[in-house]
Design goal:
The structure is a single chain. This protein has 453 residues and is α+β, with helices and mostly antiparallel strands. It has 12 helices and 22 strands. The strands form 4 sheets. Strands 4, 5, 6, 7, 8, 9, 10, 11, 12 and 16 form a 10-stranded mixed sheet that branches. β4, α5 and β5 form a beta-alpha-beta unit. 44% of the residues are buried.
């Protein structure tokens, strides 16, 4: 791979770059890593070396055929670049996760950082994962559905739509759209399209996004800015911009030296940032900087459910599928959603400003007193363990995920969850003379020879 000369020219103040080793690292294969889902524990990758800055991160020796592994489709793990998992370390340094947190992942697709953050939150906390581009929002929704948590909602909005939400979020992640130079080794085609003009355009866009979202951060809240770019104009220069434009403090993180993470400071304001270089550690190019909004004593919005709200909790019997406890259901157009009871006010509040495309768990369609179960309910990590289920072999699981007809023995007629190694894959319905496959068509594996691929 021939790296562009302009890339090295963009390292104006990054004196610690060893150009020879940097180039050599880009001739090697990218690092393969995954992050396990603590709510769906499995023995997948148990023997693999852990990523030092992420509790559930694992390095793999080579890239397996992930699509052919039903545990991926069950949400037992997420394929994520190791450097970006450093977000977990930063969050744990800055956030008290035993408290109730209202969080926003502003540029969330495909879902790596959202699934990571959601795994740290308690049940009373709430994460809004946002993506403005429709097809990417669909991928985000699929990945958040598979991860299986109740308190992760998805919106599809431009960052400017968050401007009216004043002082709402305790944590805001901004994984900003960038020129992508940190992914050259992983995606070599990026090299052909990369140029300094693109870097400059990305920097301007990053500044606009920051202005759109800043007022939504609570006083004393945390804002984390990230890119997968090596360029100072998108990293340290943006840190300077943030510290100049907004009332925030820069946050320093104490990093073990043996990790190979480089702490930098911006040229003007001396704000802290953290860089990942492929010649210094096992990971791709990544940058992260953390800020705490200064306490200006703004008032929090008062959230109540209006008398005529369509988001009022309903009393519906879905106890055969989930334990209700502190949860409530919301009925919309015969669709039944399960959410935490304390989140009902947020359903109405966010719907006034944002396009909510996923909230809580879509349990199913309510037909009279019967719930026709939806895939989200099967993926929910806290479904009842005594739901009627059928365990599938690997070949049967692949056929199911291809949405093919499968011949399996069910003890009686009705709805069943099919499982692989004890983890839910989705629904079937035994009609007696045949079994209907209810796996979502848009999630299905299209490759018919996936096991031999």
């Amino acid at each position: 791979m021939l790296l562009p000369n302009q890339l090295f020219e963009s390292f104006k103040n990054v004196s610690f770059i060893d150009k020879g080793k940097f180039i050599e690292a880009h001739q090697q294969a990218p690092v393969i890593s995954v992050r396990l889902n603590p709510l769906k524990p499995s023995d997948a990758f148990n023997e693999m070396l852990g990523v030092p800055w992420c509790e559930y991160g694992k390095y793999l020796h080579e890239r397996p055929n992930f699509t052919a592994d039903p545990l991926l489709h069950a949400g037992c793990y997420y394929v994520q670049e190791a450097s970006s998992m450093f977000l977990e370390y930063a969050l744990k340094k800055l956030i008290h996760f035993e408290e109730t947190i209202i969080a926003l992942d502003l540029c969330a697709a495909p879902g790596g950082k959202s699934t990571l953050l959601s795994s740290l939150l308690n049940e009373e906390s709430l994460l809004i994962s946002n993506e403005v581009i429709q097809n990417r929002a669909s991928i985000l929704t699929e990945n958040m559905t598979k991860w299986g948590q109740l308190n992760t909602w998805v919106t599809a909005n431009d960052p400017k739509h968050f401007s009216p939400l004043k002082n709402v979020f305790d944590v805001v992640l901004i994984d900003a759209p960038c020129s992508g130079s940190g992914l050259f080794r992983k995606m070599p085609d990026f090299v052909n399209d990369w140029n300094q003009d693109t870097v400059h355009l990305c920097s301007q866009r990053q500044q606009r996004i920051l202005h759109d979202i800043f007022d939504a951060v609570k006083d004393d809240g945390i804002m984390i800015y990230m890119t997968c770019s090596f360029c100072e104009e998108e990293n340290e220069d943006i840190v300077d911009y943030i510290l100049n434009e907004f009332e925030v403090d820069t946050c320093s993180l104490k990093i073990p030296e043996e990790w190979g993470v480089v702490e930098t400071q911006s040229t003007k304001a001396k704000g802290y940032g953290y860089r990942f270089f492929p010649h210094l550690l096992r990971g791709e190019g990544f940058f992260l900087a953390c800020f705490r909004k200064k306490n200006a004593e703004h008032h929090l919005p008062k959230l109540t459910i209006s008398k005529n709200s369509k988001y009022k909790p309903e009393v519906s019997n879905i106890t055969e599928y989930v334990n209700i406890e502190s949860k409530v259901t919301i009925l919309q157009h015969d669709n039944l959603f399960l959410i935490e009871g304390s989140h009902a006010v947020y359903a109405e509040y966010f719907a006034k400003h944002l396009r909510l495309i996923k909230k809580g768990i879509l349990c199913g369609k309510l037909i009279r007193t019967e719930v026709i179960p939806e895939h989200e309910l099967a993926m929910y990590a806290n479904t009842r363990k005594d739901i009627a289920s059928v365990e599938l072999s690997l070949n049967e699981a692949i056929l199911y995920l291809q949405k093919e007809n499968i011949e399996i023995n069910c003890p009686h007629k009705g709805w069943f969850i099919v499982t692989y190694k004890g983890h839910n894959l989705g629904w079937i319905k035994n009609l007696g003379n045949r079994v209907n496959n209810y796996y979502p068509s848009n999630y299905r594996i299209l490759n018919k020879n996936i096991l031999s691929a």
